[in-house]
Specification:
Mean pLDDT: 87
Low-confidence stretches: 252-260
Strand order of the largest sheet: 1-7-6-5-4-2-3
Shape: globular
Order of helices and strands: EHHEHHHEHEHHHEEHHHHEHH
Helix content: 40-55%
Number of helices: 15
Distance between the termini: 16 Å
Strand content: 5-15%
Number of strands: 7
Radius of gyration: 20 Å
Amino acid sequence: MVAEPASATPGSDEYFRRITEATKSFHERNVAAVFLVHGTFAGDDSFGLLTELERHVPRLAKHLQRTRKGVFDLFAQETGNYTRRFEREIERAVNQQRNSKRTIPIRRFSWSGLNNHIARADGAVRLLVELAKHAEENPAALDHPLPPRVQVWGHSHGGNVMALIANLLAADEDMRQEFFTHSRRFCQSWLSRKINLQSWHEAQKVLRNDKHPLRRLQIDYVTFGTPLRYAWPEEANDRLVSFVNHRPKVTPLKQPGCDHLGPQKFRPWQLITGAAGDYVQQIGIAGSNIPAFPSVRAMLADWSLGRYLEAELKREFLLSRIHHGRRVAESGTTLLIDYHDQGLAPWRHILGHGTYTRRRWLPFHCEEVSRTLYS
């Protein structure tokens, strides 16, 4: 579906009114929280070093991770990044005219942001634990005629972190164990073979417990510019909406010889200006990982997990793979949006990939999420 966006000036009366109106359905449908998940390179551990430190000095590692994320937020602001202001403004508007005493909290979730399988798997495990804690600590949502829901918004590969969560929750015990077996070199100690990353231990406990409060949550997935990487389970099909920056006037939706949507060629000038939409969404296609380093355990786990997650992926040069150019996922609803964000400053629009998290589009996104998931 192609939709025409309408922006609003952040902080204006219209801005807050539109968000408040659009999110009334969040309260009606018993949304208990909204989590915001950033994408690649916007995280708290650019090189994987702090994750290694966490095994030995967890408190120091957490402090350094928060510091690193704070520095990134300072420079990136809202270009391809969820800011604290974004978090505060949506929370204020969502709860401005609520009809119940229960508020809907908005939470930013941070993961390493590295561009490989094991980093996204680690992000999925950590987010799963956060969702489980929220389910345990907020029983009020259970006192509603409708089952409690949680929305998770993911930018870029943050959406693929969510895809892994959806698959873990939908899988049976044997399939889940296969996932953890391929990841064991990352989360286990070399000598004792015990799990030395607490979040991985907690996630396995939660997934084994069929009566855990997390199992009562319905998770709605909202992705922004997420590269088509991992398949979504059938159970998530009606609870998934994807926003993709696309300009059909520049690049036709269907090109000769193609049965999928999106640009097929990388013309340098169009690439620099973001003329045809989100090029990073196309570049991040399956097979475009950056090797996990400098940890040997991360490299081994990433290789093993890649063989498992992309077992059917044919060997192909990256440039050839990129030219497949798919825009639309096979699952859920995809909205192709012309954000009119092109320009001569690629660091401003990040090749068409940085516009989704700008606050001026927040009312439009809330309206489309409400319409698509709750109408």
